[in-house]
């Protein structure tokens, strides 16, 4: 199946440059266009991306910012 399939997740050929190509082979590099192209009935609302920040989350603060975090050695703060 390597390089011989075509689907929502690409051609399975280890080439990231064609992972967003459309069903008909049209070259594409935009995720929203890919999602709309693969919609089941064309009536799906387009999702609006929103930026979320971990800084507002108490648990993320605990893991990523506190000096006594068990993960502190993984981050340069």
Automatic annotation (TrEMBL):
VWFD domain boundaries: 1-45
InterPro entries, A to Z: VWF_type-D
Residue runs in coiled coils: none
Alphabetical list of PANTHER family matching this protein: AGAP008810-PA, PTHR37860:SF1
Name by which UniProt lists this protein: VWFD domain-containing protein
Species the sequence originates in: Wuchereria bancrofti
């Amino acid at each position: 199946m390597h390089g011989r399939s075509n689907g929502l997740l690409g051609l399975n050929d280890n080439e990231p440059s064609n992972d967003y190509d459309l069903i008909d082979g049209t070259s594409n590099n935009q995720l929203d266009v890919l999602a709309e192209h693969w919609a089941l009935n064309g009536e799906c609302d387009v999702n609006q991306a929103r930026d979320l920040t971990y800084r507002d989350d108490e648990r993320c603060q605990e893991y990523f910012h506190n000096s006594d975090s068990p993960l502190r050695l993984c981050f340069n703060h």
